[in-house]
Amino acid sequence: MNRPPHDESLERLADAIVQRGLTAPARMLLDILAPLGFLASQMALFARPFVPGDRWMRYVDALSDARGWEQLRDILNRDC
């Protein structure tokens, strides 16, 4: 089964959030941003030139799509 290209990046990001004990604040922030998915994705695109290195660029790319924010929220809700 083919997974969308950003699924792996979002899974890694969710794992890092969980490992650092930031699941609750991240879920709250994602719930607040949910109605603003398009705006949040545009903010990620705006931040793109300021993000150093390739490692973070994958996360910015994944979150530059409004569905990326929704997927991240779903992953965090699934894991809790």
What's the helix and strand layout?
Layout: H1 7-19, H2 23-33, H3 37-47, H4 53-63, H5 66-79
Helix pairs in contact: 1-4, 1-5, 2-5, 3-5
Describe what you observe in this structure.
This protein is mostly helical and 80 residues long. The chain has one domain. It is 75% helix and 0% strand. The longest helix has 14 residues. The termini are far apart. The model has no long low-confidence stretch (mean pLDDT 82).
Question: What would you say about this model in short?
Answer:
With 80 residues, the chain is mainly alpha-helical. The protein has helices at 7-19, 23-33, 37-47, 53-63, 66-79.
What count of structural domains? 1
Q: Calculate the terminal CA-CA distance, rounded to whole Å.
A: 25 Å
The helicity comes to over 70%
Helix segment tally: 5
Low-confidence stretches: none
Which shape, going by the Cα principal axes?
Answer: globular
Radius of gyration: 12 Å
Summing up helix and strand content along with how strands pair, one would put the structural category as mainly alpha
Major sheet: none
Mean pLDDT across all amino acids: 82
Kindly estimate the percentage of residues that lie in beta strands according to DSSP: under 5%
Instruction: Sketch the topology as an H/E string, one letter per element.
Output: HHHHH
Strands, count: 0
